[in-house]
Amino acid sequence: MASGPLDGVRVLELCQIIAGPLGGQFLADLGAEVIKVEPPEGEPWRANAPMRPFESKAYQELNRGKRSLAIDLAKPEGRDAVHRLVQAVDVVVINYRPDVAARLRIDYETLAALRPDLVYVDVTAFGREGDLADQPGYDIVVQAVSGLLASTGKVNAQGVPIVTPPAIADVTTGYAIAVGVCAALFHRAMTGRGQRVETSLLVNALTVQSGGSWSFSSVPAADAELWAKLADLNERARGGGMSYAELLAARDAAARPGGNIYYRCFLTSNGAIAIGALSASLRDKVRKVLGVEHERDAPGYDPWSPEQQAADRELVQHVEEKIRARPSEYWELTFSAGGVPVSRINFVQEVIDHPQVLANDYVVDLEHEVTGPQHLAAPPWKMSLTPPQPQGASPTLGRDTDAILASLGYGPEEIESLRARGVIR
Asked: Are 275 and 283 a contacting pair, CB within 8 Å?
C-alpha cells in the first residue's frame, strides 16, 4: 500500500543509468506510483555486473518501489501504448537526449498535447541549448567539462586524473529532479497548469561546487589575484612546461595558504581520521587538543608571508607526526572530548551497521523476489505526518507490463500479439 506525501501521483519514468532513476526512486519513496519504461531487453544498468539475468546491484539500489513496463518505443505500437498511458499520469521524467525524445515522439510538445496539465521533467547532460545540447554525456564527462573533476584534485600514480565514486553530477541531479517535480506539482495544484521542468548534470555539477576553495562563482573583489595566478599556471601547463599533476599541486599552492591543521585528514598509527574546524572557536579547540600555538586567528596573520609560511610548514609537520604516533580510536576520543568534530575514515561497506546510521533508521531492509534480502539507504527525509518509505524492492524486467496495458484497455489477445511481435516483453 502506497504512503507518503505524493500518494495518488502517477509518474512515468523514461530514464536509464543513475540520475533519472534516482530521481524516480525518490518520488516512489515519497509515495508516488512510478512506472518505469524500459526496452524489452532492459535498461543498460541491469547488465552492470549482474547477479542474475537482468538483475544487478546497481539497478536495484536505484529503482526500488517502481513498476516495470518493458516496451519498445522504436515501434509505433510501443509509442501508441505510451501515449495512451501519458493521458493517465501526472508526471513524466525523461533523460533521453533531446533529439532522441523528438524522434520517438516522447518530447514535451507531443506529450503535453495529450495531457495539457502534464509536468514534464527534461533531464539532459549539458542543457537544452549550445553546441553540446544533443551530445550524450555521462557523469565523468560532465565532471570534466564542469571543473568538478579537477576540483577533486585526484591523480593516480602516473599522474593521470581519476574520478572516484560517487557519481556526483548524477546523484545531485537526482535530488534536483525530485525537487523540480514537487515544485511543479504544487504550482499545478494552485493554477491547474502543467509545465516543462529542465535540469541537467552540468548545472548540478556547477552548483555542487560552492562554498569551498574551488567554487564556480566568481567575485572579482575576492578572486582577481587568484585568477591571475591560475591564468599564468594554465598558460605554462598548456605550453608543455608542467604535467597535469604538477599543475594541480601548483594550483593548490596558489589558492590555499599553508598552516592547515584544522580542516583536513590525518594519518594515524592504524588508519586515518578527518577533523573539521571552520570557526575561530573550533580552531582554538584544535590547538588546545594538540597542545600547539598558532597565530591563525590573531590580528595581522598573513598566510602568504615567507616567514609565516615557513612557520606553518613546521607546524603542519609537527602535528602530522604527533597524530601519526597514535591510533585512530585515541584521536576520535581525544578530539571529541575537546569539542572538535572528528571521525575515523570509514569504508562505505562498514557504515551499513554504524551505530549512528542504525539509531536514525537510515537503512531499510527489503526482499527482492529474485535475489532475496537487501539493505539500502533510507529515503533522505523524515516527515511526521506523511512519512516516506520504500514501496518495495526494484521490479523484475517487465513484471507489470501486462497489468499496465490491461489498465489501458488492451485485451489479453492484443497483449499477446504485442509480445509475439517483440513490442513488449
From this structure: no
